[in-house]
């Protein structure tokens, strides 16, 4: 015998989410009106940094290069921009300054901010810089910058630049008159295939290009020039600007003339190649010992909705090696359900792990060195359907859980071990099927429990050491998340149910309404479920049917909706009322305002006994032991299709609820 498990989607209105301070997203409109090196508007490129040098204690700081703010404490520039241009030696950190919010070099405005440099990181093992290979440097500022409309980090790249892709270069370079520009300028430039760059001047480019560089430019008089070094080449992707490259060098006009060639290409440091190095350098230099030092980074704007199918998760492979003594992760999440794994990472022998998970609405940060782990618990529930920011971090054997800016838990493991070794992949929102047994072992729960209680909600702004992890290597059963996710839910084709209202007494009249769109001709719409009986309304091969049972009798019947074609994949409006006449119940079904069906059944719920209202499969039909659980299998929030009429569930269910039901393809099971 086969049983048809039909699934539904209950949807509510959703809008697009946008973070207050997303990287690479200036507050003013960014229509690209600046071409051929024209002056930039104020706050149009708020991540552009000015690198200042002084060569001796007696000299003032003067303009040297450009750079890009990528973090509240870090600026990315080229390595040669940290060197004395006369000797080639790296400048001491006290002889470097970073200025942000600058629009003109000949004016000081109230939005200008100057910062001392605390650390200088370069790729060379000894901190040296040789030639133009590995032309990249990371400057750690002594204090965190204040994020304003004039000062905002740019996003790091989610992928490498491509030939032909258009970018925009920003800087204070030389003008057409070979004078340093006093105003910030910007110009669009396409990435150029390396062969084209070499063919333009084999002698000039032949020995200078390597895999860490790429070419860009027009050869039309607009190019990068002296003074542009270190400035960013940004590309517009997914609504934000990403740092694709940094100005490294251009060819001289002629031997002995250091001025740049106006009709030549420019060479740019390929930022994506150094992403692992950037993240590792930030992780190495960051330290914290108190909760006051734990602050979320500028958000990335990426947002994912989990629970849209089996083993819903993100997987990150392209991440730097985690430091054994510390980690620092942060994310934002929103869910209405009490269970689920938000983050998981482990080592290959399964002895060390990091986990962030919900259980009974409480958020836990767990980690294990292999000698016995610890789980730090929040002080209250977080399955309230609201957005929350969370930081879960560890230094040596002490872990911290910070939620919405408040430290909720801190604790340390027993023993002397202080190093924890986990490797990629990192999992967010769940794990893949092959990792399910390992996750269950780490959390000391049954695999079946994890499969029935996957994370159902939204996660955004996933950061490691305050830097976005970037695009996932793999995204399984996820969709883009919305700012407003309803408490209503929908089911995938794996079946399941939602307990919409638990244990209420039926009035003399009960009413429920819904919009549904059949993608399968059969499936259960809803059921009223008591201890001694139940009522189920279903679609059966495109017809309307019911099943009713009390302690003595069971009955079922199917009706053909004359004039209505329920095989059509379109939205239908249905209203159902059940009237109690003591000796019998009268059921009325109205479909699309035209078809009306009325039938009588024996009483299926004794008077003054409670019933529960379920959407989807009847729990007894599914043989689910815990029938009071409000989230089973693949139930999850979802957005609302436009143009549907609101339908109210009857007056016995305060407050009224709008239901929009989506029937997905049924699944035949033995």
TrEMBL record:
Family membership: Belongs to the peptidase S1 family. CLIP subfamily.
Span of the signal peptide: 1-19
Any one GO BP annotation for this protein: proteolysis
TM region(s), chain numbering: none
Domain Laminin G residue range list: 303-481
SMART domains in UniProt: LamG, Tryp_SPc
Protein name per its UniProtKB record: Uncharacterized protein
Keyword RNA-binding (UniProt): no
Keywords: Disulfide bond, Glycoprotein, Hydrolase, Protease, Secreted, Serine protease, Signal
A Pfam family this chain is assigned to: Laminin_G_2
UniProt source species: Culex pipiens pipiens
A GO cellular-component term linked to this record: extracellular region
Top-level taxon of the source organism: Eukaryota
Localization: Secreted
